[in-house]
User: What shape does this take?
Amino acid sequence: MKKKEIKDKFIKLRVSETERDSWNAKAKAKGLTLADYFRLLADEKPTNISPVQQVKRRNFTKADPELLRQVAKIGNNLNQIARAVNSGESLKVLEQLISIERKLKELTNAD
Assistant: This one.
């Protein structure tokens, strides 16, 4: 005789009231509990799901970790600039940005 598997693990799922009521009705119409209804749906083959419902995964190309760090630092700097501008220090920030721009022009003209 096969032992009955103990089902003591939970999966929590946030749904709207409309979704919950709809799923309860569908489960009841098939004579199933909501848990058994979801088990039945989860065990179906992916071919039974319409292409619109299937989640498409993007393929990301690998990027140089050092480049990613530099881009993250630039983003951090932009956030700091935006925070300073929004705090009322816009004149000070503008002066610093002009200074940075001049230094960058000097560096690019030095080549």
Helices lie at 17-29, 34-42, 65-86, 90-110. The chain has four helices and no strands. The CA atoms of residues 96 and 102 lie 10 Å apart. The radius of gyration is 28 Å.
